[in-house]
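Input/output pair, single chain:
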Amino acid sequence: MNNGLNRYFGLDSHSEVLLIGHSHLMLAVDKVNFEAGIGHSVSKYCREGVNVADRYEMIRQYLSSPYRDSLKVVLYGVDQFMFTGEGLSKNSYKLFYPFIDEENMDRYIRESADFKDYWLHKLICTTRYSDALINSAIRGYRKDWSNYKVGNLDVDALKGQIKNGTQRHIHFEQDLIDCFEKTLSLLTQKGIRVVLINTPIAEPLNQYEPEEYHKIITYLQQKADSFPCIYYWDFNPKFSTRYDLLFDPIHLNVEGQKVVSREIVKCFNEEIEI
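Output:
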């Protein structure tokens, strides 16, 4: 099972480019075409529902592996909700149960889980795999990184949710900001370039809290302006009103993935040299 997961996430590959993010980035990048387009090996380590702290551990996991020596660039998924704890699972550490025998993930799970939960999964291997993880393992053996989101965003429904206050709000939780800063330091100190990549989100979400939205976009741009090895790519200005490319407010559909993946390949080839 773990062999399949390692293949799906690219944790068994000497990759030059590593994608780190949650489902926002997962559904935005066509791994096969991106890899072919840039001419470099790519690992796509994206997990649904992972927060900034989870992603820090995911990066440490890859950097602790025997495959770390080839890594040159990390594409790190960002958005206006990245410092908002609400809306993502508080139990996201459970996503990493299959890797509990690896040192850094063992520590992370031990710190996050209660005593009984930790030892149950540590001692009984079969408890580590949810249906979603089994599916990912199967996809790893099939080399299947496809986007299966078919359909289009209901814009009127989204506007109604915003009006009713049922959509997520933008917050700036200091522990998540600190963890993000720590992530950037970890990578840049190792000479790894970091691309902060903001893939399209529906425009109504980008507009409903304009001051907070501007604040986080400015913060990300300042990171890129302050460090020569950090880049910020924002695909919202070009695609956030292309509702035909969105499956829901934050996820691209199949056609959206094709379109945005081509744009990412273009930016990579123009700005990044390996």
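Strands lie at 17-21, 42-46, 73-77, 193-198, 230-234. Residues 2-271 form a domain with the Rossmann fold fold (CATH 3.40.50.1110).
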